[in-house]
Amino acid sequence: MGAVTPTFSALAVASPVRPFFATPGATGRVLAAFEQSAYIETEEGQLVALLAESLGRGAFALTVAGSPTFAALALGDAVVIEDHTLRLRDLVIDLAPGAPWDPTVPSLEGSAQTGMRTLEGHLRAHAQEEGLARALFEVLAPPESPFLAEGRAALAQLHGAIVGGDAAGITRAVTRLAGLGPGLTPSGDDVLAGVMLALRLWPDAGRPLGANVIAALMLGTAAPRIGRISRAYLWAARQGHASDAWHYLVRALPGANDALIAAADRILQTGETSGADMLAGFLFGWRPRGEG
């Protein structure tokens, strides 16, 4: 008797990737695989994340019910849509139950001043040592790592360029941050994604150039310098798309209550330092505005 191919059910499908899953015969390949997640690239070059239910809904993801294991997938494995299912190696995902999900972060309802200050204090206390989040706060006792020092200097340069309306300065600062740090999505890339998400919520923070101009400069400068997966997250943030944990955080900001801390903690659990670094960028993007 042959081995039984495990079958799981789709839970949610983010709107940017829904056309791929709705196209019979659509194909792709595995770009990266981990225990609870995987990334595939479609034949047209679109990046799609596959997430286990525990990771929630993503900006460009298919969330799968239960606890599928993606670690056995190999780089380059074929992906195909057949008969309302996603087939990849020894894994089959029934797409029919997948509910549409809009990853667009909701608008703020009320002042976020208190919530952002609460978030700042929480990140200061809980940011991992390995990422760039600490570069947002006070200079640490020497010797400070060259990585952290470069991140701090680049953020200071970016801040000055944003408030000064200096397009060339923004480009120079983003060039320093793009690809800064190790990992699948380096810390500098995650910080940039957080900045762009903040600019969507607080467009006035982009004065005098304007939030759209700054975001376009950032994305255009970073894209050729970073990896495929980082580019997808930056593009998503540019559109105001983010995981459901960010939706919970934005909804909780005006209240600055336990729901805000719970959402922040979910984000902090993303990757090794990705969540903390993106939160740092989010705080940084809010700071030039000077108000909530």
Kindly state the number of beta strands. Answer: 9
Contiguous runs where pLDDT drops below 50 for at least 5 residues = none
The share of residues in helices is: 40-55%
Q: What is the end-to-end distance?
A: 63 Å
Count of the domains: 2
Q: Which sequence of SSEs, written as H and E, runs from N to C?
A: EHEEEEEEEEHHHHHHHHH
Assess the beta-strand content as a share of residues.
Answer: 15-25%
Q: Report the C-alpha radius of gyration, rounded.
A: 19 Å
Main β-sheet, in a few words?
8 strands, mixed, barrel
Secondary-structure blueprint of this entry?
Blueprint: E1 7-14, H1 18-21, E2 27-33, E3 37-42, E4 47-52, E5 61-64, E6 78-82, E7 85-88, E8 91-94, E9 99-101, H2 113-126, H3 146-164, H4 167-177, H5 187-201, H6 211-222, H7 228-238, H8 244-252, H9 258-268, H10 274-286
Parallel strand pairs: 1-8, 1-9, 4-5
Antiparallel strand pairs: 1-5, 2-3, 2-6, 3-4, 6-7, 7-8
Helix pairs in contact: 2-9, 2-10, 3-4, 4-6, 5-6, 5-7, 5-10, 6-7, 8-9, 9-10
Main features:
globular; 9 strands; 8-stranded mixed β-barrel; 41% helix; 292 residues; 16% strand; alpha/beta
What does this entry show, briefly?
This protein is an alpha/beta fold and 292 residues long. The protein has 10 helices and 9 strands. The chain has 2 domains: 7-101, no CATH class; 113-289, no CATH class.
Would you kindly provide a written description of the structure presented here, covering whatever features stand out?
The protein has ten helices and nine strands. It is of the alpha/beta class and 292 residues long. It folds into two domains: 7-101, no CATH class; 113-289, no CATH class. The chain has an eight-stranded mixed barrel with strand order 1-5-4-3-2-6-7-8. The protein starts with 6 loop residues before the first strand and ends in a 6-residue tail after the last helix. The model has no long low-confidence stretch (mean pLDDT 93).
